Amino acid sequence: MDYSRFMVAATKSGSGKTTITCGILAALKEKGLNPCSFKCGPDYIDPMFHRNVIGVPAGNLDTFFTDDNITKSLFEKEYEGDVAVIEGVMGLYDGLGGIELSGSSYDLARVLSTPIILVINAKGAGRSVLAEIKGFLDYDEEHLIKGVILNKTSLAFGKTLGELIEKEFGIKCFGVVPENKDIELSSRHLGLVLPEEINELKEILDQETKMISEGIDLEAIIALAKGAEHLDINIENNNIVNTNNVRLAVARDKAFCFYYRENLQMLKERGVELVEFSPMVDHHLPDNISGILLGGGYPENYLVDLQGNTFIKQEIKKAMDHGMPVLAECGGFMYLLDSIKNEKDKSYNMVGAINGKAEWTGKLVRFGYVTIEADGFDIKGHEFHYYDTDNNGSSFVAKKPTGNRSWPCMHKSGSSYIGFPHLYYPSAPVFVDKFVEAMKNYG
Question: Is 330 labeled as catalytic in the residue annotation?
Answer without folding.
Answer: yes
